[in-house]
Structure formats: C-alpha cells, structure tokens
UniProtKB/TrEMBL annotation:
It comes from Dovyalis caffra. This is Uncharacterized protein. Residues 662-757 form the Subtilisin-like protease fibronectin type-III domain. Residues 52-129 form the Inhibitor I9 domain. It comes from the Eukaryota. GO terms for cellular component: apoplast. PANTHER family: PROPROTEIN CONVERTASE SUBTILISIN/KEXIN.
C-alpha cells in the first residue's frame, strides 16, 4: 500500500456493498467493512500534513476544447511551486479529462487554500474514503436461450460494460472469449495484464488502486460482479454441490472492461474511483457498474455522483448499489437521479433442510451444507435451554459442557454471542449429531442457507416454538433432518432483502429511491479460486449476497437494452426498467420483505426488474443532461456547487430552478402540506406509433391525485405528450407517509409510476 493512501484512510473508508453471509467463515477477508486504523488521524500538525485532495476547476475561455496535454500543464500550474518538477509529478496523482475538469494531488491544507486564488479554481477538499459495501438468475428474470428478449437483444452483443471494483481473475472461464467478436472500433482501452490475458470478452483491464501492477482481483468481489454482469457461460458450475448448472452473466455476449479502484480488502478511495470513471468514459464503455459506495452526501461532494454525471452526458448508463444498511430508513448510497440505484431481493430458490419430528410433523428450514450420508432415521432431540439453564439455549461456546448431547439432534436458539455456524461447531464439538437452530422473535421468518459444519437446519421462530412445544409434550422427543437440496419456484420470491438500504433519500428527498430491485441474495458467480477444499469446484465459484450482487444484474440488463434500443438515452433505459417492474411475487401476491411483512415504496422502489417488459415499455420519461441543471439549482445548491457537478459555469436564478418533483422522473416523491402541488411530466412514445393511453390512479391515503389530460393519444406523428398531475390533501391521516401509483394504460402496456407522499 503506498504511503499516500494512509492519509486517505484517515477520514474515510470505502467498502464494497457485500453482506456478511456464511462465506465469512471461510474467507475472513470479506467480513464486515474493514475497520482501518484511524490512529494516525491528524495527531500532529494538521496544516502541514499531505493529504489527497480532489480539486475541481472550471476551464477558462479559450480552453473549452483543450487537449489533454494542455489541460495537464494547466493543472500543474495549480500545484505549489517547488524546486524540481519531479516532486510536482509525485504530488499530482491523477489528471482528469473526461468526466470532470480537475485533478487529484497530495497537498497540505495551506497549499490547497492557496489554490483558491487562482483563476479557474472551483473547489478542493480531501478525498473521502468510501466503504465497499449465477447460475439461475437469468432464468428467474425470464431470460431464455434462443427466445424472446435475450435472443432479440443478442445477449448484449457489441456493448461494453465497465466494472469498477477490486479487479478481475483473468483466466477464469467466465471470461473466456469463445464465440466473442472483437470489440467495436470505438474501443480505446488498455490491458494492463501481461501478455494475452485480455481477450475479446475481457477487452480491457486497468489498475487505479495500485498503478503499475496488474489489476488482479485479490478479493473476489470484482470477479463476481463482472461475471454476473457479462460473464460467458460456464457449464457445470456449482457451490458445495448446490446451485448446479450453467453459470452465465446477464449480458453474456457483451464485452467487459475492468477498472480496479478498490483494494483486495474492498476499500476504494475517491480519487481512484474518479480516475476509473474518467478512463471508462474515454475508453468507450457503454454501461458502468459500481457495486460500491459510501453514505449519503450532497451530490457536489460525492465523486461517484459527479463522475456519473460526466458519464451520462456522453450517453453512458450508470448502475450503482443502493447500499447494505437496511432495513433502517434513510440508509441509501448513490442516490443521484442520473444513477440507477439498485436494491437487492431474494431469488426463488431455497436449499431445503426439513426438520422431521417423532410425531411426523415437518418444518422446512434451510442449510447450504447438505450431507448425503446423513440418515433419515429419528435421533433423540435435545433442547439446549433445558435443564433449567436458559442461557445455554444459544449454544454459545462452553454452553454444552455439562450435558450429554452425543448422537442427539440439538435445538439451539438464535442470539447470544455466537453466529449460526459457530453454534453448529459447539454442538459438533460436544458430540451432537445435528443441530436445529431456531430464530428469535425479532428475526421471525427470516431464515438463511448457511454453510454449516454439521447436519443442520435453520427454522423460523414460529416453527421453533412448535418444535419446543413438541419437546415439552413428550418424554422422549425425537427428530431428524431431511436434506432436499435446492428447491426452485419458491412462491414468496422475490422478497426485499433485509439488508437492502431503504429510502427516503437524504440527498434528494424529492426523488423516490431506490429505483429498482434485482437479485442480490445468495448469488452464485465466479470467484478467485475454489472457496475452500470442501467445495470441489474448479474453477472457483462463490455464493454471496449484497446490493453489490444486484447491481451487476441491472448493469447487464441495461447492456441488453442498449443492444436492442441503441438510440435510447440513459434516462430512457432507466425509465423503461422502472415503469415495467413487478410488484408481485411469483405467487401473485404483493412483494414482501424477508419477514413476510408488507414493504413500502422506500424499500421496493419501482419494484422488481422484469427485463422482458423493460424491452417494450410503451412510453418512457426521458431526461436530457441539461434538464438536471434547474433541478440542481432547485435543490438549493449554489452556482459553484452546481458547477462542480455539471462541470461548467452555471448561474442559478429563480426562473431557472424547478422543485425536485418537477424533474421528468418515472416516479414521484413529494412532501405535501395543505397547499396542493402540481407537476408536469412528458412521456415519449416508444411503442406502437398509433396508441392511446388512459390514466389510472391508485391514490395515496388522504391524497387526491388529479391527472390532466386523463387520456393521451399518439398517432399524429408527435412522439411526445405532456400531462400535469395535482396532489391535494383530502384528509388528515395519522401516518407519516402514504403511497400510491399512477399508471398510463393502453391496450398492451401499463406504464407505472410509484407515488410517495410524505406528510
Ligand atoms: C414478474 O411478473 C411476471 C408476471 O407479470 C412473472 O411471469 C415473472 O415471473 C415475474 N418475475 C419476477 C422476477 O418476479
Ligand atoms: C433470435 O434472433 C435471431 C436474430 O436476431 C432471429 O433471426 C431469430 O428469429 C430469433 N429467434 C427467435 C425464436 O425469436
Ligand atoms: C510477462 O510475460 C512474459 C512472457 O510470458 C515474461 O517473460 C515476463 O517476465 C512477464 N512480465 C511480467 C511483468 O510479469
Ligand atoms: C443439478 O443436480 C441435480 C441433482 O444432482 C440434477 O438433478 C440436475 O439435473 C442438475 N441440474 C443441472 C442444471 O445440471
Ligand atoms: C423512518 O424511521 C423512523 C424511525 O423508525 C420512523 O419514525 C419514520 O416514520 C420512518 N419514515 C418513513 C418514511 O418510513
Ligand atoms: C458423512 O460425511 C462427512 C464428510 O464426508 C463425514 O465427515 C461424516 O463423518 C460422515 N457422517 C457419517 C454419519 O457417516
Ligand atoms: C448456563 O449456560 C451459560 C452459557 O453457556 C454458562 O456460562 C453457564 O455456566 C451455565 N450455567 C449453569 C448453571 O450451568
Ligand atoms: C411468519 O411468522 C408468523 C409468526 O411468527 C407466522 O404466523 C406466519 O405464518 C409466518 N408467515 C409465513 C409466510 O410463513
Ligand atoms: C415448555 O415447558 C417449559 C417448562 O414447563 C415452559 O416454560 C415453556 O414455555 C414451554 N414451551 C413451550 C413452547 O410450550
Ligand atoms: C457555495 O457553497 C460553498 C459551500 O458548499 C461555499 O464554500 C461557497 O462559497 C458558495 N459559493 C457561492 C458562490 O455562494
Ligand atoms: C428568489 O426567491 C427567493 C425566495 O423565494 C427570494 O428571496 C429571492 O429574492 C428571489 N430572487 C430573485 C432573483 O428573484
């Protein structure tokens, strides 16, 4: 690790958006966000300490179309005068040319302050440290080989997906280029791997975390996300004999360009992220996928938001993780309206471990470890909290010392100070034959398939109570576990993952976020190497969870849409994805959270992505990059702050500002008092040229929603139509917010916008 990074870590820590699951027991590198030592933080002499600053400039007149070399020498002129130019070279870390005008450099506080006097200076601040937060998912998403949208989009052929992450494992078969054509001629990127490791699938790979070294993934996260977005098919993939099948990325014929901006520990610094985005734009990427982020910040202070704005101005789609800080509300990352903010949901498979009791009652639980040699004959069942010691029920280390559990099935309770897998180890060490681990009341119905160390099943709280009641009811309770392997078609999927960050957005309360949900729980994709020797899979695959895993699914879908609709803008693609999303689960019921409780629009956003419908949305809500300027002025940002985001001089005036809810966004989020509010929206017809739509309104509780006109006809050549919508409070309701929907319905399309009203 170079020295300068140490200064970065003082203030911030970037982590990949990955949720701790059972893999943590195997791979300590990806446990909870890495806590870096902050002891060095400014102990002595703050003012003369060198830190990495992000400096934004405004090109003076005459330099608007300056060449990169000219910009570089101009940037140099901002650096402190020193005796040799070589020490200035070391001060300058990155020159940015595409998404922003400015640079990253090592500066002291005084030096940064001194730059403020120079012409063209906009802002300078120490960089932030952020935290870095499949076999079956194409099928779950309705994508089928040789049929429908997957076939029609050519699996994303010709599209370039840029992945900013921990690097990549280049020799993995998920990055084989068999059958791949060369990259399109616009491609200008580089391969920083030695020799022939790049190919027609992996067309570029660069390292911004550790310049001069190959961008080899030392973590696994970048390999996983890249293969999820656009990996080549690999037959015979599996993980501990489960999830077997062909592992394939969503845009399996798209090209991949890798930008390593994070360390092998999953920490990513802002200057590197911005450099990666700058290069990806220059190189010719079409879609950027960022499974990383930090906490909410104003957009002028958020390098991903600023870099993404530069990208969308060039027509590049940007998909980012919503964060893993759910289910608390206001917990989102990457909220800017020009970014697709992706939340995570479960997939319709379960790795079943059914508990069977002596009374023949059966309870379906889950376990990733599915031993083939475990007998289905009943064994004595022992409750770890019996013998009058209730704190023993948690099966914490030491708790089973004084009881004989040999050759017994032990019922443990969630809680105490040990994790589910650790409890299994305690039972195993005490000679137990198997473990049933039941939830506590708070975790209710949320069970998970863990990689247990002995035959085990994780059951819900309700099922656990039934098992306890059975134990009470008989002198010699008996039980066994029936291992049923991977079961598909779970009717209550998708569910919003508990960890998926929830709105409302702090940075932009007038925009409903997250935008969309995609598969992000227990996702199988490529990994560095076999996870451990119990997994007899070569090459490596791993099953992990996080909004990090959901994001590349959406990046892949955006690549498919780019391929099938090359003329659509990033906002149009986003609108198509959002207005066609599913609100119901496979069983036809409203999507719930993992507790089976109803979930609101701040958790579900527009719903769960439905790629086939997104290919044919009927209408889209388009936004041109310049439309964001009045929006940003309306957010209350001053001219400098707006200028930092849009990277040119802006003069906000009242006449050029709009309220947030007036942005032509495919959803509504408003704060409503007693005064009615009216907004307009413009829809663009991308469906049949002759079509007519009727507005159907599902009003939020206590709110009247009036749409004018209530019908729209297309056919006269005009592709756009504008309508207005007025929100009026009709009653005082005793809830903090209410939600509803505005649907434009034609013979063959429903274009749905969710509405959130905060009182
Ligand atoms: C979305 O809904 C459609 C029905 O409209 C269903 O066929 C499809 O399986 C759903 N997809 C997901 C991922 O829930
Ligand atoms: C698949 O796509 C090809 C080329 O785009 C097309 O010719 C073929 O008809 C499609 N197949 C189906 C079943 O839609
Ligand atoms: C690159 O590969 C060549 C040939 O395989 C080898 O001779 C050379 O040492 C390698 N360079 C690096 C930096 O690994
Ligand atoms: C996965 O394994 C099961 C059991 O061994 C087998 O029945 C199934 O066909 C396999 N699925 C695939 C897609 O190979
Ligand atoms: C957010 O959470 C707080 C505290 O749990 C709650 O009072 C508030 O109503 C929530 N807001 C929304 C919009 O869900
Ligand atoms: C089942 O197989 C595992 C792993 O191969 C072994 O450790 C265990 O002892 C076996 N159990 C029985 C009951 O044979
Ligand atoms: C009860 O269980 C706890 C937790 O394992 C243990 O520390 C304690 O010694 C046990 N108490 C008795 C009386 O067995
Ligand atoms: C979830 O748990 C509750 C109570 O613990 C139970 O009544 C309910 O049936 C469960 N729901 C599902 C879908 O399993
Ligand atoms: C089982 O019996 C114990 C002691 O009689 C009692 O405290 C407990 O509530 C019972 N549990 C259930 C689930 O019935
Ligand atoms: C804009 O706000 C920033 C703080 O974000 C402040 O430093 C700057 O002076 C303001 N600029 C103007 C033109 O008001
Ligand atoms: C803009 O509006 C604000 C508040 O509504 C007002 O104070 C200010 O004078 C207005 N500025 C101009 C230039 O009209």
């Amino acid at each position: 690790m170079e020295n300068w990074r140490c200064t970065i870590f003082l203030t911030m820590l970037v982590t990949i958006l990955l949720v701790p699951t059972f893999v943590f027991s195997l791979s300590p590198a990806i446990t909870d966000p890495i806590v870096l030592s902050s002891t060095s933080s400014g102990i002595i002499n703050q003012d003369s300490k060198l830190e990495t600053y992000i400096v934004f400039l405004e090109k003076p007149e005459g330099m608007e179309s300056a060449k990169p070399e000219d910009l570089d020498s101009w940037y140099q002129s901002f650096l402190p005068a020193v005796t040799t130019s070589s020490s200035n070279q070391q001060r300058l870390i990155y020159s940015y040319h595409n998404v922003v005008t400015g640079f990253a450099a090592k500066l002291t506080k005084q030096e940064a302050k001194a730059m403020e006097m120079k012409e063209g200076f906009m802002s300078a601040r120490p960089q932030n440290v952020l935290n870095v937060q499949t076999t079956h998912t194409p099928d779950f998403l309705g994508l089928q080989r040789n049929l429908g949208f997957w076939n029609h989009s050519n699996y994303g052929k010709g599209v370039i997906v840029g992945v900013l992450d921990t690097g990549v494992t280049p020799n993995h078969p998920s990055f084989s280029d068999e059958g791949m054509p060369p990259p399109p001629s616009k491609w200008k990127g580089k391969c920083e791997f030695n020799g022939t490791l790049c190919n027609n699938k992996l067309i570029g790979a660069r390292n911004f975390y550790s310049a001069g070294k190959p961008p080899t993934d030392g973590h696994g996260h970048g390999t996983h996300t890249a293969s999820t977005a656009a990996g080549s098919p690999v037959q015979g993939a599996s993980f501990f004999d489960q999830y077997n099948g062909t592992a394939v990325g969503i845009a399996s014929s798209a090209h991949l360009a890798i930008y390593q901006v994070c360390s092998e520990f999953g920490s990513c610094s802002e200057s590197d992220i911005l450099a990666g985005m700058d290069a990806a734009v220059e190189d010719g990427c079409d879609v950027l996928s960022l499974s990383l982020g930090g906490p909410s910040r104003p957009f002028y202070d958020d390098s991903i938001a600023i870099g993404a704005f530069g990208a969308i101005q060039k027509g590049i789609f940007v998909s980012c993780a919503a964060g893993n800080s759910g289910p608390s509300n206001e917990s989102l990352s990457n909220e800017a309206p020009w970014i697709l903010t992706v939340g995570a949901s479960t997939v319709d498979r379960s790795i079943r471990a059914t508990v069977m009791l002596g009374n023949n009652a059966q309870y379906d639980g889950e376990s990733f470890y599915q031993p083939k040699n475990f007998s289905s004959s009943l064994l004595p069942l022992f409750y770890a909290g019996s013998n009058g010691n209730e704190s023993g029920a948690f099966c914490d280390p030491g708790s089973l010392k004084d009881v004989d559990v040999r050759e017994k099935v032990v019922l443990c309770e969630r809680g105490g100070f040990s994790g589910l897998i650790d409890k299994g180890q305690v039972v195993k060490d005490a000679g137990g034959a198997a473990m049933i681990v039941m939830n506590d009341e708070v975790s209710g119905n949320v069970t998970t398939a863990s990689l247990h160390v002995l035959p085990a099943s994780h059951v819900s709280y309700a099922d656990g109570l039934s098992i306890k009641a059975y134990i009470n009811s008989t002198a010699s309770p008996m039980a066994t576990i029936l291992f049923k392997g991977t079961v598909f078609g779970v009717p209550y999927a998708p569910q919003v993952a508990t960890f998926s960050s929830r709105g409302p957005s702090l940075a932009c309360p007038g925009i409903l976020k997250p935008d969309i949900l995609g598969p992000g729980v227990l996702i199988l994709a490529a990994w560095l190497h076999p996870v451990d020797n119990r997994a007899n899979t070569t090459p490596g695959f791993n099953v992990i969870s996080g909004t990090s895993m959901a994001t590349p699914h959406l990046s892949g879908i955006a690549a498919l849409l780019k391929s099938s609709h090359p003329e659509w803008s990033p906002a149009a693609i986003k609108s198509a994805i959002m207005t066609t999303a599913n609100l119901t689960n496979l069983g036809g019921m409203p999507i719930t959270d993992q507790f089976f409780d109803p979930v609101d629009v701040f958790g579900i956003g527009s719903g769960h992505v439905n790629p086939t419908k997104a290919d044919d949305p009927g209408l889209v809500y388009d936004i041109q990059p310049d439309d964001y300027i009045p929006y940003l002025c309306g957010l209350g940002y001053n001219n400098t702050e707006v200028g930092i985001i849009v990277q040119r001089p802006v003069t906000c005036s009242n006449s050029s500002s709009i309220p947030e809810a007036q942005l032509n966004y495919p959803s509504f989020s408003i704060k409503l008092g007693s005064i009615p509010q009216t907004y307009t929206r413009t829809v663009t017809n991308v469906g049949p040229s002759k079509s007519s739509y009727i507005a159907e309104i599902n009003s939020p509780q206590g709110v009247d929603v009036k749409v004018t006109p209530s019908g729209i006809q297309f056919g006269g050549g005009d592709l756009k139509a504008t309508y207005s919508v007025t929100f009026t409070r009709t009653a005082n309701v005793n809830v903090p917010f209410a939600q509803g929907y505005l649907n434009w319905v034609s013979a063959d399309h429903v274009v749905r916008s969710p509405i959130a009203v905060i009182f």
